[in-house]
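Sanity check

After download, print the first record. It should look like this:
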Amino acid sequence: MAAFSLLSTDSVDIKRSQFERRAVLPSSRDSLWQIETGAVRTLTLLEDGTTVTLGVWGKGDVVGRVLSKADPFQMECLTPVEVIRLPLDQWYLVNEVLIQHIQQYHEFLEILHYRSIDVSLLRLLNWLARKFGQQVEQGQLIDLHLTHQEISEIIGTTRVTVTRLLNDFEKQGMIERLSRKRIVLQEKQPFWHYEI
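Expected structure tokens:
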């Protein structure tokens, strides 16, 4: 998915902001944030305290309170992030980005709805590798430093299950885990086939 940037538009008054890992982007109904560098997770909390990840967004993506009906709604930086604030009167510039936002959200929903948690996790890792990964000799490096808890919140399972599955994937040679919560997704993966 190609990243779209507002930087090429001369008429935009660009106001860049930087946020540290774990910072929360300020939420407003009259502005959006376009991500220039880094990764942001949008999330909400259910009544029982369960954290629900609504999406993981990266360079070129647009996030903001106005794009969700979830309440509460939060935008948490998964990495150090640089963003551009886009006020309401400049939203006409982001039509292409909003279409990509919807497409990415649908991809994300598909990952979450696999009946088998191991397939969901593997699909999530593949998606993260495509969106945020960088090619290394062994495969695709996912350098987001996601905790097992954060991954479990994304796919709707427990931290213990994610830890067990990552251990299984590592034993099967599908992934290699490096220090500081980095994962290398191996080039060769098993072919998943389920008959209906």
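If your output differs, re-run the checksum step. Summary of this record's structure: Residues 1-11, 191-196 have pLDDT under 50 and may be disordered.
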